[in-house]
Design goal:
Radius of gyration: 21 Å
Helix content: over 70%
Number of helices: 22
Strand order of the largest sheet: 1-2
Number of domains: 1
Structural class: mainly alpha
Distance between the termini: 25 Å
Order of helices and strands: HHHEEHHHHHHHHHHHHHHHHHHH
Shape: globular
Largest sheet: 2 strands, antiparallel
Length: 481
């Protein structure tokens, strides 16, 4: 294999790495609003170019670097979602940070660096590659959480995320060392062969538990969710939108690859852990959100709840289950980004962010289009048919039933009813409560276009995309299995 063939297979990472380095130099020497806007849109263009490069060998090139990196349709599917979410997080930033006086070119560059780490994560087929990608993503995320240095809440969110993230990384690294010590390899294929040949030893079981615990922190699954509400509330809203979408996709894809690819012969061992996390996440995410008054904290618990539903598909351990997880994450990203872009519009007459759910009262009268879009997102996240949010839950429950986990699907259906309560509460607040002071005017055409596109996608019109998305998720799952 020539060097150019290798470059073609790692094209997304190369494009983002070279582009991020150049834009960082520009941000260091040109700190004007015009330069900031140029860096933002250049970053979006780089992400689009990286996504387009997946149409070539980068999307189906096979193993690289002695099996440490996989350029396959599974990774390509996840990378498209990651790059899409990262681009939206950059598009949402200028309007927010310009009002706060924090519009600096480092923000889009940090998003790009984090996207490189996530891209490596979803292509990792070796424990060392996994850890390198995860740490690259995490280091950029710690800075993003505390990006508004003069905001006490942002600084607190960054510190909490850093301390707990370092703890999770230590747990993950300890699990990696155990798996290496007892299997003699860090390659996923080698671990799978060792486990299949000799069964799951006590040491390998402990390594499995620690690795899953470290990855559970990244997807914010219960009981490793404790950082999520505080970080989501304290971080700047564009950063929160980013945390709720792209890193979740990367961590979930990585979790799927580790369990299916590396630990496939130990399905009976890890399935119990995944089932517990799925049940705990759906129950806690559904119940704990009921009493929340802050919209960002409510969406934090909503994300925990949704991760629980995705884990139900993973618990099946089948091709249909993996495809359901990928399909779920694709729809989840669109719903989440659309919702957070509306949260960005929640500003008083002076332009200060307003995050209380009560401030949405009467939004249907003051901003009817915005209220209609929010209603679509809330109904869709709740899983109300015929909106797009119904189908991901249907697919994960169906995969669980086919894997003889009917009881797990039944519990998931019951907890989805609990979660629907607080989504409907937001709709009731917008349409039936006495009007609160109207939000201040906003002029952000790019954000408006993204909100409109996301709302159309989750509406019944999105059903036209259902066959294509379902086929793509099945192809990606087949590549992994």
């Amino acid at each position: 294999m020539t060097i150019w063939e290798i470059f073609a297979r790692i094209a997304p990472e190369l494009i983002l790495a070279v582009g991020a380095t150049d834009l960082l130099l520009l941000a260091a020497f040109r700190q004007t609003p015009g330069a900031y806007r140029f860096i933002c849109w250049s970053s979006v263009a780089l992400l689009a170019l990286a996504a387009l490069s997946l149409l070539g060998p980068a999307g189906n090139g096979g193993a690289l670097f002695d099996g440490q990196y996989q350029a396959d349709p599974f990774a390509a599917f996840a990378k498209v979602l990651i790059f899409l979410a990262s681009a939206v997080a950059i598009i949402a930033a200028p309007g927010f940070f310009s009002r706060q006086g924090d519009h600096r070119g480092e923000y889009p560059v940090l998003i790009l660096l984090s996207a490189i780490g996530m891209s490596v994560m979803v292509s990792a087929s070796d424990l060392l590659t996994l850890y390198i990608g995860l740490e690259l993503q995490s280091l950029a995320a710690y800075v993003l959480a505390s990006f508004q240095r003069r905001d006490v809440r942002s600084a607190e969110a960054g510190l909490k995320y850093f301390v707990l993230g370092a703890l999770a990384s230590g747990i993950l690294l300890y699990g990696i060392s155990l798996l290496y010590g007892f299997t003699g390899t860090t390659l996923f294929s080698g671990i799978s062969e060792a486990v299949a040949a000799d069964g799951v030893s006590t040491g390998e079981l402990f390594g499995l538990v620690f690795v899953l615990a470290g990855l559970a922190f990244k997807v914010s699954a219960v009981p490793f969710h404790m950082w999520t509400p505080d970080v989501y509330e304290g971080a700047p809203t564009p950063v929160t939108a980013f945390f709720a979408s792209a890193p979740k996709v990367a961590a979930m894809a990585l979790l799927v690859r580790v369990t299916i690819d590396a630990l496939g012969p130990a399905t009976d061992a890890w399935r119990q852990i995944i089932i517990f996390m799925a049940l705990a996440s759906t129950i806690l995410g559904g119940v704990a959100a009921i009493g929340q008054q802050n919209i960002k904290r409510l969406l934090a618990y909503s994300s925990i709840n949704n991760i629980g539903f995705a884990l139900i598909g993973l618990a099946a351990g089948t091709r249909a289950g993996v495809a359901a997880v990928l399909f779920y994450m694709a729809i989840y990203v669109v719903m989440t980004l659309g919702t957070f872009l509306i949260v960005l519009r929640m500003r008083d007459a002076e332009g200060r962010p307003v995050e209380t759910i009560a401030s949405l009262s009467g939004l249907s009268r003051s901003r009817p289009a915005l209220a209609a879009a929010m209603m679509l997102f809330m109904f869709s996240i709740a899983g109300i048919p015929p909106l797009m949010g119904f189908w991901p839950k249907f697919y994960v429950f169906n995969a669980a039933v086919e894997a003889n986990l009917t009881w797990l699907a039944a519990v998931g259906i019951a907890t989805s009813v609990i979660g629907a309560f607080y989504y409907l509460k937001i709709i009731k607040t917008m349409y039936f409560d006495d009007p609160a002071p109207a939000y201040g005017p906003t002029h952000a055409p790019a954000e408006t276009m993204v909100i409109g596109a996301a709302a159309l996608f989750v509406s019944p019109l999105g059903l036209f995309a259902l066959p294509a998305l379902g086929t793509a998720s099945l192809i990606a799952a087949s590549a992994l299995l």
